[in-house]
Amino acid sequence: MGAIEFDGVGKRYGAVHAVHDLSVAVAEGEFVTILGPSGSGKTTILSLVAGLVPPTAGRILIAGRDVTNLEPQERRIGLVFQSYALFPHLSVHGNVAFPLAVRGRPRDEIGTKVAAALARVRLAGLDRRRPAQLSGGQQQRVALARAFVFEPDILLLDEPLGALDRKLREEVQVELKALQRDLGITTLLVTHDQEEALSLSDRVIVLDHGRMQQVGTPDEVYRHPANRFVAGFLGLANLLEGTVEAGGVLRLASGEAVACDPRGRPPGARAAGVVRPERMRLLPESAGEGLAARVRQTVYLGHLQRWHLETADGRELVAAATDGVRAAAVGEAVRVAWSAEDVWLLPDESGEAAAPRPALAAMAPVA
Ligand SMILES: Nc1ncnc2c1ncn2[C@@H]1O[C@H](COP(=O)(O)OP(=O)(O)OP(=O)(O)O)[C@@H](O)[C@H]1O
Ligand SMILES: [Mg+2]
Question: 41 CB under 6 A from ligand 1?
Answer without folding.
Answer: yes
